[in-house]
Amino acid sequence: MKTVKPFEITKEQVWLAYQSVKNNKGAGGIDEQTMEEFEGDLKNNLYKIWNRMSSGSYFPRAVKAVSIPKKSGNGERILGIPTITDRIAQTVVKMYLEPILEPVFDKDSYGYRPQKSAHDAIAITRERCWKYDYVVEFDIKGLFDNIDHKLLMKALQKHCKCKWVLLYVERWLKAPMEDRNGNIIAREQGTPQGGVVSPILANLILHYVFDKWIRKKMPNVEFCRYADDGILHCQTQKQAEYVLEAIGKRFEACGLTINREKSGIINCKSHGGKGKYERVSFDFLGYTFRPRRSVNKQGRVRTGFLPAISQVSKQAIVKEIKRWHIQLKNAKTLGELAKEYNAEIRGWYG
After folding, report:
1. Which residues of the chain fall below pLDDT 50?
2. Pairing mode, strands 63-69 and 177-178
3. What pLDDT was estimated at residue 76?
């Protein structure tokens, strides 16, 4: 007699999820199991995942707490690394949710989304800096650690009626964390940064907390958000001040907090002029944006925005220039040097 499972999850879904996890690689969870060890009994391990998920008896293990230094160099970030089994199960859910939630998400949300990238966010930000005099930048303090579970589940239930998806997402949210000393830490909020399903859940909560709220309350304000980093473009100083205060209150009302040290107002057109907001450049997604002032043949002053350039690229350019400078000491003419290096220079500029 064929056993009927309460949840319709196919073995093909589990197989595709396994392939995705394998391609993404990553460290083991609290069980320290590697992908090679998991594949040592692959058929049986995948069957267990399918059987437990489709019968409702799947319960995730605690996530492994791993500290990594922040990109800024100030402090550490705590990642919650699930086991390989849990990563495969989360990928099954992600594969189900993505086609449902992607059409819902805002066009100016760029982080952790298929067919969108940080370069897309950088391009649209540079374009809008030509049109607007003020930029409001913000960074959410500890987004993944402070997401309200009730608000998140309410948002998820609005778009997803699948019982097993809701069941397992709720179990993942409640799964504890184990630190390096083996201590178990209960979690009442947040979703582990390091979990497969966490990015799409973070985008979902911020869609309602920020994206949709901005569209409704401030329809004339353009924005670009990449996960917990965002940029808003304003016409006037007064508008920028209002926007910064308003979004701060909005985040606090939803259990989130703006990092004041990484948030503020930039006057994109001041060119270093004196005033309340003297900052004329800002960093976004590791790239620096700054205005450029030039005079055309008719003597008219024109303002543009330089292409964003990353710190890594800056260092590489300096290294290359130093190498080219050494070449000037040899017998090559300026024309020969130009012919040799102009293409590279244009490439770096682009």
Report:
1. 1, 272-273, 301, 325-329, 349-350
2. parallel
3. 80
CA 280, CA 271: separation in Å to the nearest integer? 6
Q: How many residues does the chain have?
A: 350
pTM > 0.90: no
* 8-state DSSP, 108: T
Structure tokens at 113: 């989304």
Q: Evaluate whether 252 touches 141 at the Cβ level (below 8 Å).
A: no
Nearest to 204 by CA among 195, 212, 196, 193: 212
In this structure, are residues 176 and 108 in contact, taking their beta carbons and an 8 Å threshold? no
The closest alpha carbon to 63, from 90, 39, 95, 36, belongs to 90
CA-wise closest residue to 239 among 218, 223, 258: 218
pLDDT in tens, 109-120: 999 999 999 999
What pLDDT shows up at residue 328? 45
Residue 48 CA to residue 323 CA, distance in Å, equals 58
Among residues 323, 332, 64, 326, the alpha carbon closest in space to that of 177 is found at: 64
Residue 142 C-beta-side C-alpha neighbours within 13 Å: 14
Give CA separation, 339 vs 235, 241, 317, 345, in Å: 44, 50, 18, 11
> Quick one: tokens of 145?
């650690």
Q: What is the pLDDT of residue 286?
A: 84
According to DSSP, the residues that pair with 193 across neighbouring strands are 195
Q: Could you give the CA distance from residue 114 to residue 7 in angstroms, rounded to a whole number?
A: 27
User: How far apart are the two ends of the chain, measured CA to CA in Å?
Assistant: 65
pLDDT value of residue 347: 56
Contact 257, 251 (CB under 8 A): yes
Structure tokens that stand for 166 in this block: 């809701």
Q: Which two tokens stand for residue 231?
A: 């940029």
Alpha helices in the chain (DSSP H): 11-24, 35-39, 42-55, 84-101, 118-129, 143-146, 149-159, 163-174, 198-206, 212-217, 237-253, 311-327, 334-349
